Amino acid sequence: MKPEKISEIEVDQQIYDLYDEYCHTDMDRRTFLKRASAITVAGISGLAMAQSLLPRYAQAQTISFTDERIKATYVDYPSEGGTSGEMRGYLVQPSSEGPHPSVIVIHENRGLNPYIEDVARRFAAEGFLALAPDGLSPVGGYPGNDDDGKVLQKSLDQSKLKQDMLNSANFLKNHELSTGKLGATGFCWGGGTTNFLAVQMGDELLAGAPFYGASPSAEDVAKITAPLAIHNASGDKRINAMWPDFEAALKANNKTYEYFLYDDTQHGFHNNSTPRYNEAAAKLAFERTVALFKSTLT
């Protein structure tokens, strides 16, 4: 099912940049909208452009919860050293008999929202056992909106939150429905955490596909063994500024990777719940990610 078009408004780069600041700093929604309202481009209100960027998750679903190709459920599992010692995730399996190669799908900086759950279902439809952990589950779970989710996730001890993601990856890898072959992908904060897992797990992780995520340190790059498919947006100044050092470290350590920079895209271009979504780039990036996982996990 193809998602409905989110907005017909053409959003100016100034508003995209402001939205990126809103998503990744302490800026609240009121401040974001107030600052946007001071901008007018070609007769179009910045406030209207800003409001169009807020997610519409119901319109963005591509695979139904009841799709016959998949079976989805929420699972609880231990997470020693994490935020609370317990975690919850959204586990989606193909309807075909397992075991299956597995993929962990890591959310942005606001908890397990409906978009990330949909991405997990997409991977299950491709034949993978997919787990989308909710880093906010130890403190009540995704609160139902991204604003509160962002604040809640930032309030957590980040080292414990990453430990929860590492424990989630190991839970999935060792699940009875898994072949033990694990890949990782994630978006924004989840992209950086995908890189973190590649560093921490070494050869226990067989492939990684970070989407516009923060780069690891040059020292940590040396610990990576998984081949990477790195997806970045051409308009993402913050993440792209990290790429030269990341690339140099990958080359210096003879790592296997492919780097994809998608023209005319913004940070978050894969997220089809807002106008940042670029259908062609998102489709190509997903196809490249599935191809990497099928070549390394099956």
Question: SSE layout and pairings?
Answer:
Blueprint: H1 13-24, H2 29-37, E1 40-41, E2 44-45, H3 46-53, H4 57-60, E3 70-78, E4 86-94, E5 100-106, H5 114-125, E6 129-133, H6 146-155, H7 158-173, E7 178-187, H8 189-201, E8 207-211, H9 218-221, E9 228-233, H10 237-240, H11 243-252, E10 257-262, H12 279-297
Task: Describe the overall structure.
This protein has helices at 13-24, 29-37, 46-53, 57-60, 114-125, 146-155, 158-173, 189-201, 218-221, 237-240, 243-252, 279-297; strands at 40-41, 44-45, 70-78, 86-94, 100-106, 129-133, 178-187, 207-211, 228-233, 257-262. By secondary structure, the chain is α/β, with parallel strands linked by helices.
What does this entry show, briefly?
By secondary structure, the protein is α/β, with parallel strands linked by helices.
CATH architecture classification of the largest domain? 3-Layer(aba) Sandwich
Q: What is the CATH topology classification name of the largest domain?
A: Rossmann fold
Order of helices and strands: HHEEHHEEEHEHHEHEHEHHEH
- The total domain count is 2
Count of discrete alpha- or pi-helical segments spanning 4 or more residues = 12
Kindly state the percentage of residues in helix. 40-55%
Rg (C-alpha, Å): 18 Å
Structural class: alpha/beta
| Structure summary, number of beta strands | 10
CATH superfamily of the largest domain: Alpha/Beta hydrolase fold, catalytic domain
> Strands of the largest sheet, in order across it?
3-4-6-5-7-8-9-10
Report mean pLDDT, rounded to a whole number: 92
Q: Quote the beta fraction.
A: 15-25%
Instruction: Using the coordinates above, name the CATH class of the largest domain.
Output: Alpha Beta
**pLDDT < 50 runs, ≥5 residues:** 1-7
Note the overall shape: globular
Intertermini distance: 27 Å
Q: Major β-sheet, in short?
A: 8 strands, mixed
